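DM from R.C. (forwarded with permission)

"hey, sorry to bug you on a friday — could you get me a structure for this? deadline for the figure draft is monday and I only need the backbone to look sensible"
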Amino acid sequence: MKIVLATHNKDKCKELQGSLSELNVTLLSLYDFPQIQEIIEDGSTLKENALIKAREVNKITGLPALADDTGLEVDYLDGKPGVYTARYAGENCTYIDNVKKLLHDMRQATNRAAEFKTVIAYVDKNMELIAFGSVKGLITKKIKGIGGFGYDPVFYIEEQGKTFAEMKIEEKNKISHRALAIEKMKVLLLKSFNSINIKSGDTA
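My reply, with the result:
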């Protein structure tokens, strides 16, 4: 079985592929379908955006599609950047552009609490599945660490005493918002795949 990861983000692809490697499926990405351009994410929630991407890729390729949308919600900024997390500093911005804008906007903040949220959507011709994951942390006052991507260098986890960017990938993948959503999605997918296999066996 083939599943298309509905993203052009290479870092996200790598993280998803590693986490889903134990499923008995072949994982493809949008780099295998160069005809698919950037998909407009005009939903008002993470769930809507994840479904928009998964539905569109499923429609174009005819294959099951898996998409995620992630948002960073900062208390001091009244929940922003939220659905605009990836383009907080504007269209075509870089990771560091977003981080610099966040640190600038929070330069006077005493409350630095934040929460990373991920929604993963799976869509095929028969069903749609949704899984959520979240993790609470603090926004640091300066960049710490060189690993990860996105806002990882400024998202600090008190229990671990380090930012995501200071963690090894294996450590991050045990506690991150995306990892938690992926684990929930894997449970849903395995349950669905087993159900399909059972039904196929009953009719054989």
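R.C.: lifesaver. DSSP finds five helices and eight strands in the chain.
me: no worries. The helical segments are 10-19, 46-61, 95-105, 169-175, 177-203.
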